[in-house]
Q: What sequence folds into this?
């Protein structure tokens, strides 16, 4: 099993979107029993809450269901459990690294490192903006997800 955790600030916009996008891609590839997928936030503002309605709606247009996801905060155990801890932006990455055991810090990366079509290194926080921000988040995450899956296939010979 390869385990992937997507991480943002609140776990209600970007990281649940990434969880849903990547799960759809992995399922389409018949790899849902091989790759375990979850998401978390670096802060506790939205624990047990469903994703932001704007994120749910933008994803639903692309036939991605986020409604069963509930917010949780990233914990120390996540560094043991997951193979990839993928931060949406530098602040999330910094926050993860500030609690990461030093021998596991290499698991923390930026999701956009796996993108082939976008130059941006960060998925911008759409929380304070309009609906178009959520579509752009989806575009970026869909692209990075394809690169991530290619990386997993190569690394684990899947
Ligand atoms: P996310 O977006 O990190 O992509 O889930 C945010 C969600 C909530 C807040 C900020 C960003 N907030 O300040 O509550």
A:
């Amino acid at each position: 099993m390869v385990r992937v955790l997507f991480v943002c600030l609140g776990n209600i916009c970007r990281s649940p979107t990434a969880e849903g996008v990547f799960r759809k891609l992995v399922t389409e590839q018949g790899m849902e029993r091989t790759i375990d997928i979850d998401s978390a936030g670096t802060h506790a503002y939205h624990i047990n809450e469903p994703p932001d309605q704007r994120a749910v709606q933008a994803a639903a247009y692309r036939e991605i269901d986020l409604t069963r996801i509930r917010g949780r905060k990233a914990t120390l155990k996540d560094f043991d459990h997951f193979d990839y801890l993928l931060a949406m932006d530098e602040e999330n990455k910094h926050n993860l690294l500030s609690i990461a055991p030093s021998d596991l810090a290499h698991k923390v990366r930026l999701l956009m490192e796996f993108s082939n079509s976008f130059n941006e290194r960060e998925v911008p926080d759409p929380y304070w903006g309009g609906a178009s921000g959520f579509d752009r988040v989806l575009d970026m995450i869909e692209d990075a997800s394809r690169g991530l899956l290619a990386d997993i296939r190569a690394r684990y010979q899947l």
Summary: The pocket of 4-nitrophenyl phosphate is lined by residues 8-14, 45, 125, 127 (CB under 6 Å). The longest strand covers residues 2-8.
